[in-house]
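User: Run a structure prediction on this.
Assistant: Running it now.
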Amino acid sequence: MNKNKTSINWFPGHMTKAKREMEASLKLVDMVIEIRDSRIPNSSSNPLLKQIIKNKPYLIILSKKDKADDIQTSRWVNYFKKDGISCVAVDLLKDDVIKIIKKEVHQIMKSWILKQKSRGINPRAIRVMVIGIPNVGKSTLINRIAKKKIAKTADKPGVTRSLQWIRLDKDIELLDTPGILWPKFDDEIIGLNLAVVGSINDQILDIEQISVYALKYILKNYPTNIIERYNVELDEDPYIMFERIGKARNLLKKGEIDIERVMILFINELRNDKLGKITWEKIDEEN
């Protein structure tokens, strides 16, 4: 297998329908909010969504900042702002997301509001489409805004399935949309990043491929996270590390280290934030 380029195909039928619905609904809205994952700001952006939103005013919300490297998150926010794109990083469960979104939307739509008023028109509510790939926290955001559970949430991809309107306040209305992925990942690294954080089904890539990629990356960029979690001596070879982790956790099968169980444990602990804050894409790797 080519370690840098491969085509990973995954495009369930409901996502084709969702894309058509979003394209049809775009004419109903004034601007777009795209939710991305702070841990993978590049990989969690669907290129199909860029085609759909076209020239609409645009805000990127980097979710799950509590799970990402603070320094890298700050760099990503500055990167987008330097590119002329409004961007803010949030903890969807703890931050005052309503206040943050209202401030950003009013700032982005300021000229539109002034134009309406200059014509003697009392501006109607700003209509905002909320988009994002599965598992970036979009449903969590919608539920926080609505102050009740109206969007299904789950720690797995592809739960939200239909369009729905939510009123933020008298000035802003949000159109929630299903999380959709694109037909294939031409860059294997993007597919691996999505798999590591749980944004694509585990059947797409095997557990060995995901866990080896993840452990190699952490050993290179966050080695102390491994030491603090497993109290093992470091080695560059991920398979040696899996042996050491398995020994430390007593994961045996017929007297030998059960590597598959170690890999599953490692990925589960990674996704449950047991290995600390990790960002899988650094800004200097994008430029």
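Strands lie at 5-9, 31-37, 58-63, 86-89, 126-131, 164-169, 172-176, 184-187, 252-253, 256-257.
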